[in-house]
Amino acid sequence: MSETTPPPLTYKDAGVDIDAGNALVERIGDRVKRTHRPGVLTGLGGFGGLFALDLKRFNDPVLVSGTDGVGTKLLLARQLDQHSSIGIDLVAMCVNDIVVCGAEPLFFLDYFATGALDVGAAETVINGIARGCEIAGCALIGGETAEMPGMYGPGEYDLAGFCVGAVNRPNLIDGSTIVAGDVVIGLASSGAHSNGYSLIRKIAERCGEPMTTPIGETTLGEALLAPTRIYVKSLLALCEQVQVRGIAHITGGGLLENIPRVLPGGLDVALDRSAWQPAPVFAWLQQRGSISDTDMQRTFNCGLGAVVIVRPDDAAKALDNLSASGEQASIVGQVHAGDGNVVIR
Question: Is residue 69 a contact partner of residue 197, using CB atoms and an 8 Å limit?
Fold first, then answer.
């Protein structure tokens, strides 16, 4: 009885298509080049992305780094088969975190992981990442596309982003100069941004309303997938004109958890809930989910994607500057003596 020799196997037989990966790099090349800025030394394909820091601009530099993902908003994008803006979310979650230190985002890298590479879908996602980098003014200088058969189901993928920025040490914003009496300015969000989506999906599943349900001037699906607003250029322009004492990115943990991160000891922030108008999707979420005010405020941004703390004498100039940059901004509160809490009335 003769032994049967098994047929030879290839990497493609195991679920990894090297040719598809190469095709993706070819298709995104021009789009990535459009994000490049002075300092970029390499294109795609190297083992590492190279960036030369301009030591004339940054003569006493502090490097600021950030990393994040998009969370379960990815599942909603997959449900609706809408992937064009999820890359903007990825960039926004990283660059908004570092700009609050006064840092200018310099370059960005992404990690795209999937079970089997769909070149068209991946191209759409990465084009969104490139668009986010353009909005933020940072260069997309590299990334990784990983095919992992068995790790992800059909059509599933995950994203992570990594950003590095720089600020001259004297311009670093850390909240240490905030004092009682300072004014809190809120910058409007575009919606839930990229936080709280496990709860959002639970609410949507429980109430069963179609994603085509009208919400304000849009639909429920469009409101929930609205890309995270990128505040980089507006905040950097503000910092050039006004002495900014503190900035908070309102991300996971909402208003109640994020504002205290920039407060020195012995201070509270009191917010006036009537001072800003959240997007209609927040009222929908609270009503359909029967969510308490406190849970809303520690889960979602509730209409404020970032807050800026300035001296009272600088408030009017700050509002004018932010408005000129295209932000919807208003005075939403004040700093008081306290124990590091946020009180919303």
Answer: no
Q: pLDDT digits over 70-98, tens only?
A: 999 999 999 999 999 999 999 999 999 99
DSSP secondary structure code for residue 84 in this structure: S
DSSP category for residue 261: G
CB of 51 within 8 A of CB of 106?
A: yes
Q: What is the largest CA-CA distance in the chain?
A: 94
For residues 231 and 306, the answer to whether their CB atoms sit within 8 Å is: yes
Parts of the chain with a pLDDT under 70 = 1-3
Closest CA to 158 of 178, 144, 141: 144
Nearest Cα to 134, choosing from 28, 43, 49, 36?
36
Phi first, then psi: give them for residue 304, nearest 5 degrees: -120, 110
163 close to 110: Cβ distance less than 8 angstroms: no
